[in-house]
Amino acid sequence: MAAQLGETRALVLGAETAAGLAIAAALAAAGSRVAVVAASPDPDVAFAVQRLSRRLGAAASQAIDASNEMAVRVMTRQISKALGGLDLLIFCADLGDNAAHSLALASHFAAREMARSGGRARLGGTIVVALPEARAADVARLAGEHAPQAVRVLALDVPPAPDEAWARDALARLLPAHGEPAGP
Q1: What does the pLDDT average to over 116-127?
Q2: Full DSSP string of 95-150
Q3: Does domain 2-176 have CATH number 3.40.190.10?
């Protein structure tokens, strides 16, 4: 898996969640360039994500209010610059009633960065919704919205206690989107 994901530039939003931690660790182990972002500006959460970033050797880390449009816009642009572009957004920010709004913001700005950077994958990029109760309607709507930009939107089922085995399996499902080398 490492050779296949080694060139992927990935943003994990909601890195403070169990799913986010597992996915970020699996991406880093596979050789991806990873940025980890907490969906809350809470100081304890920010500190935990900063420690995670150092442990994984992540390219960047931040803690933002993921329901604030300007915060998401600025963060996405900064992370894309730090990674040298953006291929993959993993949205794990379990924000309750604010999750759908935050997902819409994050996917909008991530798709813009994926289009801007051209993506190293054959497709423009991939947005993965990894929430315990990802609403099919939200995923379908976002998939239709981002299809013209060649950005796929996928949903992952998140078990009650996501772990590294789950994360490796989840990444294996992403390989067709990111596993083939980019064209010239």
Answers
A1: 67
A2: -GGGHHHHHHHHHHHHHHHHHHH--SSSSSEEEEE--TT--HHHHHHHHHHHGGGT
A3: no
